[in-house]
Amino acid sequence: MIDVLQSIIPTALFFSAPLIFTALGGVFSERSGVVNIGLEGLMVMGAFVGIVFNLTFADALGGWTPWISIIVATFVGAIFSIIHAVASVSFRADQVVSGVAINFLALGLGVYLTKQWYGKGQTEMVSQPFFSNDIPFLSDIPIIGPMFFKGVYTTSYIAILFAVIAWYILYKTPFGLRLRSVGEHPMAADTNGINVYKMRYIAVIISGALGGLGGSVFALTIASNFSHSTIVGQGFISLAAVIFGKWHPLGALGAALFFGLAQSLSVVSSSVPFLASVPDIFLLIAPYVLTILALAGFIGRADAPKANGVPYIKGTR
Amino acid sequence: MSSSHRLFSVLIPIISVLLGLIAGAVIMLLSGYNPITGYAALWRGAFGDAYTIGETIRRSTPYILSGLAVAFAFRANLFNIGAEGQVIVGWLAAVWVGISVEAPMVIHLPLAILAAALAGALWGFIPGLLKAKLGVHEVIVTIMMNYIALYSTNEIIRNVLTDHKTTTESIHESASMASEWLGSITFFSRLHYGILLALFIAIIIWFLIDRTTIGYELKAVGFNPHASKYAGMNVSKNIILAMVISGALGGLAGAMEGLGTYGNISVMSGFSNIGFDGIAVALLGANTPLGVVIAAFLFGTLKEGAGEMPTGAGIPTELVDVIIAIIIFFVASSYIIRWALLRFKGGKSK
């Protein structure tokens, strides 16, 4: 049993990290009242930028390359998400449609530029991805050490740390209270002097930053190159994690860890005796089925922020 | 009011397409291509000869149906992002019946088409039921249903329809919509009878929406479920019905690929995008059957023409995806176009 956990947990953490980052982005955006179906596209953008930056500057930056790559991808993700913010906050576009367009645009641009710059549909493998490492001292603890601290990626722990920070920001700071109030009742928030548009812009841009970060972490830990099939559904799984986690940062963290586990099970199941008999298909569709069940209220009620998806028009009742 | 409304509903799609094409030209210029050469290649790729014209119509065929699927749900104020999943299960069901049943064509072909529609309808029924009975938002459920469709279909292809292969065998001749006649007049393109079916269904949907009680109730429930309930309509039933019909249309779009173009189904690494493009088609077509048909041909043209851009002008085909995304943005942001138009009009009259 312990052997099994020692092989599953590091893999689950490994698969969860990109989902956690992106899901946290989704929580910020949706808490402010802007539905973000575009998480998938934001991840695509992040993955693309992360890989391209890494390939271009690997020689100059050496061991720092993956770190700087994800920072750059975070910035580009933030900038890219402004499109979604402009469309859904200022232009009052249907937020779902705008999100769909983000997904199309990110993938289109990413593959277009890849072909333009590299002459083919996929990039080379990066020479400076993230590598797993053992955390000193902690990995020597018996049982728990190999489970949580041996052969892990630092990014996984940063992701968990980010979830705690996101929880603190959203629930313990005035900024977080304002952000949530804008998503629940924008008119009341407006009456209290909160700038609804500004808050929503900020929230969407944060979601873009975290989506870009998630995409680049996925690219530099799991995929190692960029093509049209690098990000297939991770953004939507993250969206599922937002809902499954009931729009709460720590809930999203738990859901993302759980979905990461489900993904990792389909990878390691062959080496785990009692899972080898479970067909992969059930593990593959588990996150999606569970999300539907959660929404249907079979696993506790999941209620969206009240004003989620509704453009705010000043002066209407 | 209503005449200006009608004017806008025609003007906004046209302006959006123009802005999308202009943006595409700007991108071509920025990346060092000649936009005129680029668009000329696109035109040749779509209408260069009889073969490409046939292929353009062939490619537009499933878009008509997936566009109708999304548009039909939109009319009942439901957002069916799940057209993609419905296309996939419809494709699978059609091929499944096409392979495993032996019957004369008059029975076999309608049976295969019906199977596709039923599979799609089932995929629409689940989110419809959850929406109607539990108030679960259909957008999220349909997104999740897409992935369930994708992975389940791949699994069935690998382990049920074949023995760990990635492509099924071809359907029997008696279930095929392939047409020697249509192929021969278009220089052996894969144009098939599906286009006639798609256009026929567009007419039926127009009739259903605009000329029947069912359509009236669906629209009423979409506008205001409370008022409709007060007027004695069964809101739940109408929501479910709208999703079921929408899903069936998505399934039929899958049948076009399964019984017409390919005659088989392969394991998919990602989505076919026929359903997602259907969203764009529906939006651009202002959710009317005629609009959808026109928009479907526009998208079919762009997508088919894109195939010529790499060879004809050295431009990656994905440029067209970017153009389509930009078109969707502008259609979605119609508020700002309307505002600009009103400004422009107001400025002139003063």
TrEMBL record, chain A:
- What top-level branch of life does the organism fall under? Bacteria
Q: Where does the UniProt annotation locate this protein? A: Cell membrane
Coiled-coil-forming residues are: none
Q: Where are the transmembrane segments?
A: 12-29, 41-61, 67-89, 96-114, 152-171, 201-220, 252-275, 281-299
Return one GO MF term.
transmembrane transporter activity
The way it spans or sits in the membrane comes to: Multi-pass membrane protein
**InterPro entries per the UniProt record, alphabetical:** ABC_transp_permease
CDD domains per UniProt: TM_PBP1_transp_TpRbsC_like
Listed GO CC annotations: plasma membrane
- Which keywords annotate this record? Cell membrane, Membrane, Transmembrane, Transmembrane helix
Question: Could you tell me which PANTHER family the record lists for this protein?
Answer: GUANOSINE ABC TRANSPORTER PERMEASE PROTEIN NUPQ, SUGAR ABC TRANSPORTER INTEGRAL MEMBRANE PROTEIN-RELATED
Name recorded for this polypeptide? ABC transporter permease
Automatic annotation (TrEMBL), chain B:
One Pfam family here: BPD_transp_2
Query: Can you tell which superkingdom this protein's organism belongs to?
Result: Bacteria
Q: Where in the cell is it found?
A: Cell membrane
UniProt KW keywords:
Cell membrane, Membrane, Transmembrane, Transmembrane helix
For membrane topology, the record states:
Multi-pass membrane protein
* One CC-aspect GO term: plasma membrane
In alphabetical order, the GO MF annotations are:
transmembrane transporter activity
Membrane-spanning segments: 7-30, 78-99, 105-126, 191-209, 239-262, 274-299, 319-341
Q: What is this protein called?
A: ABC transporter permease
Q: Please tell me the species this chain comes from.
A: Cerasibacillus terrae
